[in-house]
Amino acid sequence: MYGMSNINGLKNSFSAKFKMIKGTQQVIPQHHRADIDGTTLIITTQIPTLRHGRPGTGFDWYEFGKSVLQ
Q1: S-S: 29 plus which of 21, 46, 63, 64, CB 3.0-4.6 Å?
Q2: How many contiguous H segments (helices) and E segments (strands) does the chain have?
């Protein structure tokens, strides 16, 4: 996970084209995805601990994981 100020530098350090995937509020965070030689690279600036186990805050990281596998 990277802060927004560093994300473009991180993406430029790979020779891959990233696709930005729009987030769903309180479900799936915006993230950037690239497929490199059979490996999927995911970059997000969101922190998983923001959920704190309470409904209505942060993102549903279980649903995020399922969406990445699609």
Answers
A1: 46
A2: 2, 3
